[in-house]
Design goal:
Chain lengths: ~525, ~425, ~375, ~250
Amino acid sequence: MSFLHRLKHALVILVALVAASVASIAQTTDEAFKRLAADSYSDTSRAIEMLVASAHPNAAQIVEALGDGRLLAGPSDVVVKTTAGGFVDARTGQALGAAPDGLKPVRLNNAVRRAVQAALGGLGLLNPDPAKRIAAAEAVFKSRDAGLLPVVEAAIGRETDPPALKALRQAQAAILIARPDAQPLDRLAAVEVLYERGDQDALATLRALPGDATPALREAQAKAIAAIEGRLRLWAIVQNLWYGLSLGSVLLLAAIGLAITFGVMGVINMAHGEMVMLGAYTTFVVQELIRANAPGLFDWSLAIALPAAFIVAGAVGIAIERGVIRFLYGRPLETLLATWGISLILQQAVRTAFGPTNREVGAPAFMSGAFELGGLAITYNRLWIIVFAALVFAALLAILKLTPMGLQMRAVTQNRRMASAMGIRTGRIDALTFGLGSGVAGLAGVALSQIDNVSPNLGQSYIIDSFMVVVFGGVGNLWGTLVGAMTLGVANKLLEPYAGAVLGKIALLVCIILFIQKRPRGLFALKGRAVEA
Amino acid sequence: MNSNRREFLGTALAGATFLGASRLPAAAQQETIKVGILHSLSGTMAISETTLKDVMLMLIEEQNKKGGLLGKKLEAVVVDPASNWPLFAEKARELITKDKVAATFGCWTSVSRKSVLPVFKELNNILFYPVQYEGEESERNVFYTGAAPNQQAIPAVDYLAKEEKVERWVLAGTDYVYPRTTNKILEAYLKSKGVKPEDILINYTPFGHSDWQTIVSDIKKFGSAGKKTAVVSTINGDANVPFYKELGNQGIKATDIPVVAFSVGEEELAGIDTKPLVGHLAAWNYFQSIKTPENEAFIKQWQAFTKNPKRVTNDPMEAHVVGFNMWVKAVEKVKSTDPDKVIDALPGIEAPNLTGGISKMLPNHHITKPVFIGEIKDDGQFDVVWKTDGLVPGDAWSKELDGSKDLVGDWVEKKCGNFNVKTGKCGAA
Amino acid sequence: MIARFLLQNMDRRAGIFLAILLALAVLVPAANLLLPASSPFHVPTSTLALWGKYLCYALLAVSLDLVWGYCGILSLGHGAFFALGGYAMGLYLMRQIGTRGVYGNPVLPDFMVFLNWQELPWYWWGFSSFPFAMLMVLLVPGLLAFVFGWFAFRSRVTGVYLSIITQALTYALLLAFFRNDMGFGGNNGLTDFKDILGFNVQAQATRAALFSMTCVMLAAGFLIARGIVVSKLGKVVIAVRDAESRTRFLGYRVDRFKLFVFTVSACMAGVAGALYVPQVGIINPSEFAPANSIETVIWVAVGGRGTLVGAALGAVVVNGAKTMFTSGFMAPYWLFALGGLFVVVTLFLPKGILGTAEALWRRRRKPETMPAAEPAPAE
Amino acid sequence: MNAPVPGALTSSLLYLDGVSVSFDGFKAIRGLSLTIEPDEMRAIIGPNGAGKTTMMDIITGKTKPDVGTVMFGGTVDLTKLDEAAIANLGIGRKFQKPTVFDSHTIEDNILLALKSKRTVGKTLFWKTEEPQQKRIDDILGIIRLADRRDRLAGSLSHGQKQWLEIGMLLAQDPKLLLVDEPAAGMTDGETAQTAVLLKEIARDHSVIVVEHDMGFIRELGVKVTVLHEGSVLAEGPLDHVSANERVVEVYLGR
């Protein structure tokens, strides 16, 4: 882009510390501020260049503010709204009591945003904060603007912080490799640096090698590309496994409640999906309350929503069990019909109460964004969901195996008559078991609200998969559910790249159907005469 | 012996439902003009369609405040086709034959329109269809107030190519007819603009697809070939929320790979935290954020009607507003609600849209619309970054597809929806 | 022999049910075609169409009752057979459009033209012939049911497991038919039919004829189903439902009996679908939706499981209710009513409308005997 | 009719040798060997968990043994066949808990059991011929349920169900009958009648009777096999085995 050339000259000057005459600075800055007020994207971009060029003391601050939409401009003056909320006159840099009237925030589009990034890249290279320097280096690496080379090299010269130095070298390499007039040896070295970096961006930069390159360079480039691609291919497999695990964990969360109501109690609960939905809506309500009353707690909203969701879904579950299902024991297929009716009612109830449109459930800071682990891109929300699923699973296992309630549950489900003969109040246990299953579904709802629609149809989209998981894993066995969910998740994700999302899923369903032929009672089936009866 | 009582019960019940089913809400007073509202209030489509039902109720209420139509009050007849396509046909038949509606406003998905089409043809009534769709249709009984592909898709692509210097394209869509057709059109259009096949990636996903990890990372990969890349999304409403959430989480910023969507409006964004999405684009013929007196009045009226000061407006709602006003004008013009008269009167009728222009009903039963490109803002609204100078007339038949490039719809001179300019005959054959 | 098979020990209930069907088959079309709209007995075409639809559902319900009510196989995938039959008919109707499509392409349906398909996929071949299409209406669902059942019953998949994999089956088909690459019109499905056997599908007379045809087919389906359940095979099948392993120890190859009934039932469902499509004017993948199949189960439960007449009755009652509830002031709340209905029926009428009526009646007559097809606790 | 088949490994009708089976580690049957001669009636006794029912499951094909041979009629390896095939070979079984088809009439229960081709086609177009009807009537007579033929089996008392099930066995006309606790839940009168009936049957059938009721066994007056922990503990006339102190200890020490 042409303005980057001007930017380049400007920075050369800047670096060489040749101070331009005060008057000209004043001129250009006035011009720049006028353009900022003009409310036209091209003018705004131009203004950014001029500010940078003018080496105005506040340039960095102004451009940064512009980037976050904190820059207010009007015909007379331009004001920076500080992150703290105060106001600073952009020209003089002195604080103002309040923003003068008639100021409008300067609008951005993607072009302007890119200009801002590039400018910050240039300006940030000399920023005292190493983190900022690294960010700036990244920006330069992306923009690959030859004009910044001198600045980068200057920065490298005085850089002490190793990571920052690495980032700067990579930025330098990105520029060098695309520069016909650079030393062949430097360019070869650049290829090496990029190879070291070895990610998608490095690949992109290497591919962008201009046609002038010497055979030697071409060869090096080809080698580097091949090597990087090989490495990335390996990582891609790992990545797919990771995706599979995270999908599996979602399935596990959706299905594990069912593994209790359906697996342990033998109740085909078609309203299970709606329990998940209730959990998600509880999260929504909790967040609304927090937004309204205690915004500071927002990052804790999910933690607060968890018990709430468990209680809400669990209570509804108990109500359903006491109100309907207990009259239907021994007739699982009738429970299917009744619960189907209940699911219709719950859906429509939520639709009437919250409206049919999606509701926004925000993501707390710790659940947004991603980080790189080698060639592996891991998003925080998926990571946390996996962890969460594991915790829920462990907790359930503990409840069933270690607590007296769990003991009674297993007793009742294995031999109802005997249990009641031993003085266990089976009715109470049934209600609690069903409540537990539903409550867990509610917990799943909290997690799913982070990755899916929060709408009355939320539950519907998971119910079938949940049944597949439980049946595949083997009814009445939590471990089966775990293995089932993970197998299906991973298989699905390994198939997807080749078969595509739809065919992959179809193939999986067919596999399940065939699998059930081989093992009519799922992966972890109970054996012996007990089952026959 | 004991069986005849049994029989009696059975028949009685059967008979009862027969009667019940055959005499449904009998028409009230004669002096009202009935208007059918055929939008799903339950099932998967309720998400989008319920709003349109409310908007129609509001418009009809307003019209009645203004003294109704032809001296009569308007009466809304609401039915729930429950996102079930055969039920759409059944309900359409019911509206026309039992409730004797003068016109019907409804449908969202193409399949629902396709399902009611034969009914409207057979019983010769009027349907106003408010949603952007794949085109390739021009029926005498249907008026398409939503965007045709040339009123949404193509301008958007032009914008990306010009303003964002995009050279590499991902066409991602839900696997149904609208995205399929739109992508076919775009593919043809891009190639005609000299884009190489290897620079176009087309990807389809099922309805309500919720696990976007793989696809988003594929897009990331595709975007790292050293050329500026953009995603043109025809992903259907429900699947968008998880899609955008995944985009945000995998850190794809609008400045790296902008996404322009054709099915994401204010309503859809209301379900997402838009901060990570700032700068992604959408192409529509209306945005709530557009500052015109008409629009501000409409928004105020809408939020008052729904008693919800945060309630958003969106493009299909505007389509209904325009369509309704056109219908009212046509009826007033011919002093009758007789479908034939109204159908003939509608082409040429003009009605102000909410963005300061005057939309006009064309002989092919599509309307002229402005096209806006908006960037998502962090408050869930759109910031218009580009607009067409004038209004764009909707093409029923796409110029980019071999099958349809010779076809035109013209219900004024040719009395034909698919007139073939090559053969000069109606019906293409 | 067939006649004997169909008419063996005909009882009053069956007789009256058939009489009603016959009356409908004759009177309703007559009332629709001959009487003037002014006449109080005139049946509007919309009602005709509506009832045509109900009766198709009724046939589907009867077919499901045959497997669930008598054989204890709760199929949550019967909608799949219904839809497949429908698609077979749909393909025929599409081929009949000929050059009348908007693009006037003599071979390709419109959706193939604008997604520029070059030629007709092989699986469309032959559907321009009505007999072939009708054969497919029976064969495709029948074959699928046979293959599926052959695997499932031989490896003794029963009860809930069977239900769930039938659901998986229809779900897989749903996804498959949604794909446009399948060449069945994707989500839009097949629609805008012109005529059937040369008669315009929109024409009132055609509708009337289709309606009568539906009544006749329902009657035929009912007779066949009845013939099966009252035969010794029917007794065996009921025995399987109540005590599967015991039946094995008597030397019956349970899997074969299940397979037979399942396949017959699937063919019946296919016919229902084939009659349904020309009357509603569209077939699309959502017919495969698991929810539809579950609803069918509910019709049977409402009407009375294991009483074929009850199944038909249930289909008509539930759908009639649906039609009423989805219009007018009820529209926003009808799901409450429907959902409530299911809960109430399963709780208070476990034998369904007909079954309960019978039980009440018999309680006053001979307290100790029960109908042969008393729903047993399903496994 | 039950003369040893030429080429048979053994002349006996049923021949178990070294049969073992275990569920999840628990050995239900260990090295069980047993032979039944044609037209022999054998009583099997033993404490709970001795493996009586499991043995029957193995003979009727419900359970496949881990090791061991099970031969029928000297030639047929039962371990290779499924329940239906074994039943059609002529092995009938009466369960410990009487299992009849509750929602069928008593007559239909017999009809279903009646010896005939079990194919789909045959049953679909079945017509009960004169002799078959006669046979049904006879059996109904034998089990004293003729006057209730139209009642639902579900409405019968426990004892009546036992009889009905025996009647179904007769209708099957098997070579070998496995009768599991026929006298359970019967009045003394019924028990006596049952004993008579079984002896009657045993004239031209082989019968294995599993029973706890020693009085009943005595009435039968046949060779007794005592099972314990899945293998044969003692065999011989009732007096002889009840003299055996191991047996006494097993029964008392339980």
